[in-house]
Amino acid sequence: MYNTTFLCTYKLHDDEEDQDTLYRHEYLHAFGLKEYDSDAIITLLQNIYEKLKDNKHFIQIAESHYYFSKENKNHELILQFLFSFYTFDLFHKCLVYLLNDENNTKDKTCETCETCETDETCETDETCETDEKNYNISYINFIQNKNLLIEEIKTK
Is 23 exposed, middle or buried (0-12, 13-18, 19+ CB in 10 A)? Predict the structure, then answer.
């Protein structure tokens, strides 16, 4: 099971060597491993892909990646790229939302404002009537992280 209970902090360090070491540790931690095990990682990546392959947000992220091929529809390969040093922190934040949201394939947007329908930050947090205010905050944070991730992967 993918570990959604921790925060990625490797980019918060100034020293590149510390960042690299912490990235490797957090990468293993995300997959529930103490040491590298390619078979376990591949199996978990396949499970994540199966859960998200029809999710509109995941598809949007994958299809924004610099290496995405419209001809091959290589979403599963792009999933692996999203765990790279440059994007793991943002993708992890997105995965936390996507894997913990039980209805992640449904479109949940505010009924009272148009901005949420366009996946932009909702300016009307008190008038949104989706589920609960906590859900709205979680969704808005997810959309912000998703947009940051998409900007990052367009050029790498």
Answer: buried
Report yes or no: 138 and 57 within 8 Å, Cβ to Cβ. no
State the CB neighbour count (10 A cutoff) for residue 123.
Answer: 11
In sign, the C-alpha dihedral spanning 108, 109, 110, 112 is negative
- Write down the pTM of the prediction: 0.78
Contacts of 102 (CB under 8 A, 6+ apart): none
Domain range list for the chain: 10-153
Q: Which residues of the chain have pLDDT under 70?
A: 102-135, 156
- List all residues 6 or more positions away from 24 whose beta carbon is below 8 Å from its beta carbon: none
Q: How far apart are CA 100 and CA 105, in angstroms?
A: 12
pLDDT reported for residue 133: 55
- Rounded CA gap, 128 and 26, in Å? 35
> Which pLDDT score, from 0 to 100, does residue 132 have?
53
CA distance 79 to 45: 8
pLDDT of residue 137: 82
